[in-house]
Task: structure prediction
Amino acid sequence: MRPVKNWTTTTVVDLAMVLYGILGVDEKSQTVTSHIWSTMYWTNEFLTWNCSNFCGINELSIPRSKLWIPDITIEQDASDSGSILEDPWVNLNPNGSMFTFSRQKLTFTCRFNLYKFPFDVQRCNITFVSMSADVNTLVFRSVKDYLNLMVLSKQYMVTQGEWDLRDMEFLQGHITNGERNHSTLVYIVTLQRKPFLYVINFIIPLVYLLVLDLASFFISVDSGEKFGFKVTVLLSISVLLLILKDILPSTEVDLPIIANLCAAVFTLVWLSVLESILVSFLFNVDRCCDKQSKMCAEGKRFMKRTKGPKEANEETGHVKPEQRIFPLGQLGDVDLLKLILDEVKAARQEAGSQRKPGCCRRVAKIIDNLFFVGYLLTFVAFVTYICVEWIEF
Ligand SMILES: *[C@@H]1O[C@H](CO)[C@@H](O)[C@H](O)[C@H]1NC(C)=O
Ligand SMILES: *[C@@H]1O[C@H](CO)[C@@H](O)[C@H](O)[C@H]1NC(C)=O
Ligand SMILES: *[C@@H]1O[C@H](CO)[C@@H](O)[C@H](O)[C@H]1NC(C)=O
Ligand SMILES: *[C@@H]1O[C@H](CO)[C@@H](O)[C@H](O)[C@H]1NC(C)=O
Result:
């Protein structure tokens, strides 16, 4: 039974928990694996002695199984049984105060808020509660003050990996379970993620890919590279999306900003691929028209040329061979000049039709420019929004 002389006396259990390792955080299952070391102090009113009567012995160790030990569980505990290592002995002082410690690889559940991932700060509760004892018979208290626990935890922290222990507070209270109230002691652990890896590995590539996509507007459509380039950028972004899928849980409330960022970047690049398809289509339409009109022009010129010499033949009465191979010496000065003028005119016409863009081509250029401006503005606005969301804490 509970070691008190008067049964209404409340046994006060002083608890101290030191966190000395954060082994891993699983965002998918929302658990934190840690190493904790907890010490319990309480008083056994029956086990007291006077040192001077017993050769000055002022400490005793008694097997745990022979004594009453407060039953304690951790509410958020999700670890396998068998990961607790308890001190097999309980240390006893002459005034009846005793203490025991245990160390444990504790996996506790914690509801993460990943909205600001990877710049997030998580507050997790580790609640110590007695399973059977009432709040009137057993009360938990924190033995050390908050600063001490923080300092101890920081001092003993062996491994913390990706996370940084920012703060550790405790709160005494009780929970109601049916008719009974159970005393609780809640340690509120504040963990901050070290975001650097994600910044290097994820955010910077994403932004760079977006900038590349933006830059691809300056690749000329005629080179034929543009389209392939854009699709490659799209594929790279989808690889990043796959990585993200492995990290984040699929909670629908409070979708992390980074998921929005990815979706938006993906959409932007997708739109720009569509746009470049449209532009290249318009260019092709134009090129076909060009070819047709050029063919018409060639045809007309050909007609003219074949008609010209014939008329001349009829007038002058002697046969002329093909103009280009006509020996210049046999032509008069006026004829020669006319010939040169004709050639120059034809050449100019040809060059003009090539330089002047067709209607479709002009529309495509306008679409391209408008889209580029829109894209750039969206990009700037979006980056600003993301930065503001991430920075304000
Ligand atoms: C312990 O025993 C000594 C000697 O018998 C006595 O003087 C002293 O008062 C005792 N102390 C207590 C706390 O009873
Ligand atoms: C009992 O003795 C220990 C060690 O001498 C001391 O730390 C503790 O405060 C004492 N407890 C009480 C209730 O006097
Ligand atoms: C953690 O404990 C505090 C105090 O009991 C409570 O207000 C808070 O809601 C708890 N947080 C979670 C995530 O359970
Ligand atoms: C438990 O706590 C609540 C709130 O403090 C209180 O109203 C209630 O009477 C308590 N129940 C018992 C059995 O002590």
In short: The chain has two domains: 12-45+59-194, 198-286+360-391. Helices lie at 146-156, 196-215, 225-247, 257-316, 333-355, 359-391. The CA atoms of residues 21 and 35 lie 5 Å apart.
